Amino acid sequence: MVIMFLKSMLFPLIFALALAPRSQGLSQSQSQTQPSLATTFNEIKYHGGPLLTKPNSINIYLIWYGAFSRNDRSSITDFFASFNPSKGLVPHQEPTVATWWKTIQTYKDKSGNSVSSTVRLVKQIGDIYSLGKNIKRAQIANYVKHKIETKVLPFDSNGIYLVLTSRDVIVERFCMGSCGFHDNIVLSTKRTRLVYAHVGNPLVQCPGLCAWPYSLPAYGPPGQQALVAPNGVGADGMVMNIATIIAGATTNPFKNGYFQGDPLAPLEAVTACPGIFGEGAYSGYPGNLMVDKISKASYNAYGANGRKFLLPAIWELTSSKCKVIHQGA
Fold this sequence. Notes:
Blueprint: H1 4-18, E1 26-27, H2 35-40, E2 45-46, E3 58-65, H3 70-81, H4 97-104, E4 119-127, E5 134-135, H5 137-149, E6 159-165, E7 170-171, E8 180-186, E9 193-200, H6 207-210, H7 233-251, E10 258-259, E11 290-291, E12 298-299, E13 301-302, E14 308-309, E15 314-316, E16 321-323
Helix pairs in contact: 3-7
């Protein structure tokens, strides 16, 4: 890769391999990786394990670790509110976040039970750097366990305990091939496994990796331009990766659900479709998206309180293809 031309051509494939999840957690990331890889080589298979399938909802317990701006907080909470069509959405305005989730609902367990029909933000708490600003993944697991054992957060077998870290917090392996991860824990007093996850704010650490296509990588193909983010680069980067994480955590919560490849380095419902957001996506191009006439921001889904979001493609089991949500769907 001494020749710059070859380097630019090989970049998407190298990037895809670099983002492959590794052991001790299921790393997930959004990037400008080669879309054709998802539709040619990857086949998501079911490995017989449980999914998050309780009939009501997947409950999110959100921990804001560090200092977040008001815009970041409201953008992310509006994203979760968007799963409920009655929460401040314009009638008949499609596609929505709930539309996007319908593809995840087609994933079923061995008893034929579908993934829970919606996602709901149940509780959120804040923490101003009690673990410091340089955190190991194992610390996140112990931190979540402590919050549940001390009843700060409830015990919920159909929940996801999601730790979001602010832009000044360094988390082990974040920005090094990972924009977040999900894993599971077992409390000392119970046998039931619980799902927890982490997503970081990429604004200053790695926007070109974890907020693409709203920011460009330092070493990418020439001639690209970053898209305008409807809610800000950091907030929209987090939303894309939260969407990726909850899709994977729901359909492969215990490393024996739906995935392709090594269970310790799986491609899951969204990570099997890297870099694909709209029809016609290819390496370095996210696909055809809607564009706001005033702000020029690019998006593919409507949300609560007038929000617009960019959500990644999901591997559709019935067609064995990456499915994007369509305008007017």
